[in-house]
Please model this.
Amino acid sequence: MNIESFLCDGYCIVVIRDVTLDKDLVEKQKKFVSNISHELKSPLTAILGFLQILKEEKEYNQVILNYMESETIKLKDLVLDILEVSKLQSYELKLQKKTINLSWLLLKICDENINLKASKFNISINTNIQDGISLIADEDKISQAIVNLLDNAIKYSNPHNQINVLLYKNFNQEILIEVKDSGIGIPENEVCYIFDRFYRAKNALSIGGNGLGLTIFKEIIEMHGGRIEVASKVGQGSTFTIILPQENLAGESESC
Ligand code: ADP
Model:
């Protein structure tokens, strides 16, 4: 509590300000900066170490160069994700909304992910996508959100697992996108934290990641007026459901 008093026209005016929220914000900022520093430090330290070895060996070493390349890519992805989160959370970003064919978009994203990522681990993606579902949305952002979800479903699955992707409307005419995997699952007491910046569940720490994908995902879905449901069991898998309102498709495209 912050209390100030002053005299005005013979009256004593007392201003009481609750600064709990300010303190919370400062704490959150501190934690954010400390998390970023930690995440940036690890790949940078690795790159510096590899450079040192290369200098000492004084010769071309393909293995070390490959390590350095993958650490640099991690670093670049991390910086891009940090920039994306800060853009989304600062309300700087304007959505470029137009009517999109969600059924077609979802099929396209699944096909690309099967070819690029899932097939490498012998993971199959099954789709059950209702035809002709349209949505007024920012196509790039909605694609980014769905890709983040599929990336996780693939990353946290075991080889030869199956991922199911569904698109349908419920009786309220809301649009539902379901991504269901049978991978490692999320501990029950950690589900509430997975959308926090940099949060990674204990059972995921041995798998690569920076804990920003779901933060970006959640911001994008909420910017579209949607909500998210998660059901998960350790060792059995996770289902993420995006629920989007059906907007008036007769309306003009808009920027907001
Ligand atoms: P990360 O880069 O760690 O994957 P995310 O923000 O995308 O970051 O996810 C946050 C955390 O949520 C992950 O570290 C993991 O613990 C958990 N998680 C997300 N998706 C899944 C999934 N499909 N299966 C199991 N755990 C998941």
About this structure: The two ends are 37 Å apart (CA to CA). The beta strands are 2-8, 11-17, 97-101, 124-129, 134-138, 162-169, 175-180, 227-233, 237-244.
